[in-house]
TrEMBL record:
Superkingdom in the source lineage: Bacteria
Name under which the protein is recorded: YecA family protein
InterPro entries, sorted: YgfB-like, YgfB-like_sf
Pfam families, per database record: UPF0149
Positions of the UniProt region annotated as Disordered: 203-234
Originating organism: Sutterella megalosphaeroides
Lineage: Bacteria, Pseudomonadati, Pseudomonadota, Betaproteobacteria, Burkholderiales
Amino acid sequence: MTTPFDRPLSGEEFVLLGELLAGIPEPYEPMEADHLDGYLTALVCLPKRPPVGEWMLRVFDVRSRPEAVLADRRAQQDLEDLVFRRFNSIERDLKAGRPIDPIVYEPDEDDEHETETIAALAPFAAGFWEVMDRWPGLREEDNEALASALIGILRHMPEELAGDLLPMQEQLNEESPFENYDDALGDLAESVARVAEITRGWRRAEKKNGAKGRKGPASGKGRGNGRTARRRKD
């Protein structure tokens, strides 16, 4: 039996998600949609999930202030519904062995160098790390398989947040650089699938030559910058 929360987001709803997040008033600091996707993906991967009321507050404000809501109650309810549906969609894909299809913002038009495009995966990694750092279950230091899978995600952490991970990032970028954005995104999706297999017991689908995931053109807005969301390509 399906519910309204089982429907994947449409292209227009991805846009709306970004707009509603950006509409939360100052001084509150909501997540942007690309960061949110990493955050929700990590929550899905947790062996034991925190209460919804606990993790949802951080979506709307970095300090989890309960006053961080939209002035329009209907719009706030729409925003919460979109977040829940996106969470369920990510969980459903991972459970079925399908690759994640993260929200990734394109770089500015005058900044199209491939390295910068790959760097667009950094907000996803930062959102994933936020869950790792706040709740137990993804930082089991005695689990080498899990630690290895997480490297494929954390190598994309933004420099200002990388801290002790920076030497690892530099080594990987020198010894195992990605050829292009699709190569980096495919590796990220595979790493997430490995994490979910270890922490949730969801088996990965057999990897096929040339498989790049699904196509879903959509766009979204970051807070005040109007960037366009780039989706996985076939």
